[in-house]
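Input/output pair, single chain:
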Amino acid sequence: MPYNRGMNTDARANEVTVIGAGLAGSEAAWQLASRGIPVRLLEMRPARMGPAHHTAEVAELVCSNSLKSLDPSTAAGQLKRELSALGSLILSVARDAAVPAGAALAVDRAAFSRGVSHALDESPFIEILREEAVEIPAGEVIIAAGPLVSDALETALSALIGPDRLAFYDAAAPIIDAATIDHSRVFAASRWEKGEGADYLNCPLDRVRYELIVQELQTAQRATAKDFERHELFQACQPVEEIARSGLDALRYGALKPVGLTDPATGKRPWAVAQLRPEGRDCGAYNLVGFQTNLTFGEQRRIIHMIPGLEDAEIVRYGVMHKNTFIDAPRLLTEGLALREHRRIRVAGQISGTEGYLEAAATGVVAALDVWTTRTGAPQPHFPRESVLGALIGYCTDPQTRPYQPMHVNFGLVPPLEGRGLGKRERYAAYADRAQRAMDDALADRPDLAIPAPFHPAAS
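Output:
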């Protein structure tokens, strides 16, 4: 029976309010509940839907279904190792809901949301309330409302921290019905033959077709009239048309890069390649990788139909662009993600300025640990800057971080290695090894920060 049914006044006074049941909020709620702290989890959907949401499910993945690389020699892969050691719910469920994606961890969206929902519903310490937070509640609060925070909550937060918040624009890629792809014109392969051969579908482009598509992207009609400037657009989420505008070959070195791929029809590397990644385990739909866009639906359809193999493709979800809001975290947050002037309030997820699914979950872990150690009197958690989690939190909370822009985990955030002469692959592997040792040492000194890996809910 959930703790809140018939809960006494003392227990209710001890609860923490978590605003938002996305990845950060769900992770924070689960981490707190796993330590016996009662949680009131507020989610405004379905009564009020966000501009990028399509369902009322918790932990909905609104953009890509990929949680990036599993390779431990990458920053994304190393973050997974560190979150695994901390008992992350989001990572655990993602592994259960995984679909083939080469060297990346991609998930079946529906199965992933079901798995997170199951874990939260089964906890006797979590109450999920389907209501909008129009103000910041009393008591301890974790604001994990995401970058698409409602107007009312944004106003309340702005009044608390000041109006000088930052905003950027994020874009999502179209999704294609698998049954409408001409498989005679595409080939199945992962870059450098990593993973199973069918993980990605690849649409090869010759030079003429590639340059024609780039020219069309440069002049296509946009859905939002605003002429976005580069500084307003987070680099990893640049709309494909904005990248095309930056130069004829920009996409060949970005989303359409052909490296690591050989077209079996010619035995050669194509001039460029548009990749399709499965959206679910049944491969019934594919995400057009890197084609996040601000184009009108008509222009999206026209240009996508220019891609070999997609001439008759049915677009089941068009790409969209939407506003993202985040706070000036380095001037506002402690290392535990609490507001310096209002320590009862923590901020987690993309609204804190981190970018990426597991990065959001990681901030949910950190915010929950800050609540727990504050309550128990245990030392505040400190993750070493050599670890990717510590580097990310350091970037977000260091007052010297200027200018502040949203950031994925990457090895550019960690302290540099001593010595020179290592190639990129060897350097990244060395960074990852050092990060793992640093995290292992930190948790050996503070085993109380880690909890047992969560049970594996039925995600199928």
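The radius of gyration is 22 Å. The first strand starts at residue 16 and ends at 19.
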